Target: hydroxymethylglutaryl-CoA lyase
Amino acid sequence: MSYPTRVKLVEVGPRDGLQNEKQPVPAATKIELVHRLQEAGSKEIEVTSFVSPKWVPQMADNAEVMNGITRLPGVRYSVLVPNMKGYEAAVLTRPDEIVVFGAASEAFSQKNINCSIAESIERFAPVVEAARAAGIYVRGAMSCTVGCPYEGDVSPERVEYLARLMKDIGVQHIGVADTIGVGTPIKVRKAMEATLKHFDINDVSGHFHDTYGQALANTLAAVSMGVWQFDTSVAGLGGCPYAKGATGNVATEDVVYMLHGMGIDTGLDLDKLIDAGVFISDALGRPTQSRVAKAILAKRASAAPCEAV
Model:
């Protein structure tokens, strides 16, 4: 089996990872997290979202965070936008990329953004047009591509339908997301195959949550198809406010450990990633959710010299 020699990881911890936190996370902490992630080698960072603070209060400091980060050359900073109002606010902060989103489930679309799938695409069409005219790259995210908390299983035909609509409005890259983490490798493979009917393999990525412990297996299944781009979240941060019970995204540290063990380059420093994960986990008052980080932190602790009594 032939695997890609390099995999690109889009770090979504600052946005998707923190959006569902109940306690306020200070802007300074979010900015420091971005700085630590880019220090660890992250070249693609999803920083924040320009959604209504009424619905996602954790992202109310979006402009402050975007304006507060020290940008490094070669790093692409992206933001999620739900509509033209969000885009107009976002563009003032000079994002390199915007992310628009839709669901492969009608019920989830209604619960998440109060409109049908087709209506959501109509809403995003002028956003995509404006962004591309401004030279801003447009990435699309497809939620619930294998399962929905309201409808259950989602068919590949629904995924293909949404992928076609995204392609038709000018989305340049598409993410296939298992939003509630119920996917298994065969289901993920079918969702990917449906997406690849409309997008090239170089313009497709995976976004897997680990609710049922399947995220690494699903990542490997996609890698075996030649998919080489994935969204991951440091320390396994994450969850969706509209998907009850969904836990965090697959931990960046866990994916990096697996890929490096397969001889696949990510350009990321695992030790520095673990440190970034510890930083944000400490700020949230709980341990990292990364299995790899826990193991390496325990190894570090056992190797540390004992203090003289």
